[in-house]
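Hello,

Following up on my earlier ticket. Below are the two sequence lines again, exactly as submitted.
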Amino acid sequence: KAGVTQTPRYLIKTRGQQVTLSCSPISGHRSVSWYQQTPGQGLQFLFEYFSETQRNKGNFPGRFSGRQFSNSRSEMNVSTLELGDSALYLCASTLTTGGWSYEQYFGPGTRLTVT
Amino acid sequence: AQTVTQSQPEMSVQEAETVTLSCTYDTSESDYYLFWYKQPPSRQMILVIRQEAYKQQNATENRFSVNFQKAAKSFSLKISDSQLGDAAMYFCAYRSSDRDDKIIFGKGTRLHILP
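Thanks for your patience. The regenerated structure is below:
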């Protein structure tokens, strides 16, 4: 079974631009979570989607948004990029059985650099 | 709100020796899941081991085992016969039995293996 895939793997953007990152979960996984990882702040939860609905949201400004499609693939968007948005963005998918979620399986991440 | 604390930002261990990484958590719930994740340098985060709170027996996966002390809210990871490939950032994580709750990660412990 293929793992979680994220595209693109690396991205360089300029302040003020917007960016869209994509995540394809493991086949059969219906929950997708997004995290921002930086050396200073560690792993910070952005949001989780389940069956195309946002189920949880972290403490990030409204510039960070996401969505999930009917095939469980998910995208996250960051508008009006700031230098502080430079980070590794991780996507994780979870197998859900009857709505209950177990451990998460992570993708390789997208390294975003904002200049 | 639940919290996860990893009090050791960095640790070192000699190759072939045993090391224990600490994790404590705070929760008022009785049913939950605990995880240890490993993130090698520039590589994907992977699940190392998982523990269900209702199980008294400590989980074991080859050289990795946990010491789960529910009353003390402690969940340490023991790595036996440390190998160079064990060098990584290790994250402790908690997930409540509430299916709508997100996974909470600690800030991580960076483990160095000394040859």
